[in-house]
Amino acid sequence: MDNHEQSYLLYQKGLLEFEKNEFQNALNCFIKSNQLSEHSRTYARIYQCLLKLGKELEAKPYIKTAYTQNPKQDKVAIQYAESLIFEGKSELAIDILEKILRRNKTYNPARKLLEQIRYEIT
């Protein structure tokens, strides 16, 4: 079995652990998966696990990396925009959300978050 296959199997195991709320086990699987074969979605999953474990500061670089690797993945872009809002970087978050909506006009999570930010700014 090559690294990509092993990475995929670990990623799938991580998803199962995450669904069972076993966030530390899921995190371990995702980290091992990413060591074998990096992938933007795996970085996003590591981010989610760390948030669930209450490690917000440790989580931040993972969502940024996930977004940098694949800025057109809408769910990752939303998560990155949310993390920017928490950092007080609303203008950058707005830019990301507007890019999502130019690409995918019907993506309601982006539309709702953009409306929320604009409401809070005014």
What is the gist of this entry?
With 122 residues, the chain is an all-alpha fold. The chain has helices at residues 3-19, 23-36, 40-52, 56-69, 74-86, 90-103, 108-121.
Helix content: over 70%
Largest sheet, strands/sense/barrel: none
Shape: elongated
Number of helices: 7
The unreliable regions are none
Number of strands: 0
Query: Which percent band covers the strand fraction?
Result: under 5%
Overall average pLDDT: 94
Radius of gyration: 15 Å
Structural class, judged by helices and strands?
A: mainly alpha
Give me the strand/helix succession. HHHHHHH
Q: How many domains?
A: 2
Report the span from N to C terminus.
56 Å
What does this structure look like?
The radius of gyration is 15 Å and the shape is elongated. It is mainly alpha-helical and 122 residues long. Helix content is 81%, strand content 0%. The longest helix has 17 residues, at 3-19. The mean pLDDT is 94. It folds into two domains: 1-57, no CATH class; 71-122, Methane Monooxygenase Hydroxylase, Chain G, domain 1. The protein is built from seven helices and no strands. α1 (3-19) packs antiparallel against α2 and α3 packs antiparallel against α4 (56-69). InterPro entries: TPR-like_helical_dom_sf. Pfam families: ARM_TT21. This is Tetratricopeptide repeat protein.
How is the topology of this model organized?
Elements lengths: L2 H17 L3 H14 L3 H13 L3 H14 L4 H13 L3 H14 L4 H14 L1
Helix pairs in contact: 1-2, 2-3, 3-4, 4-5, 5-6, 5-7, 6-7
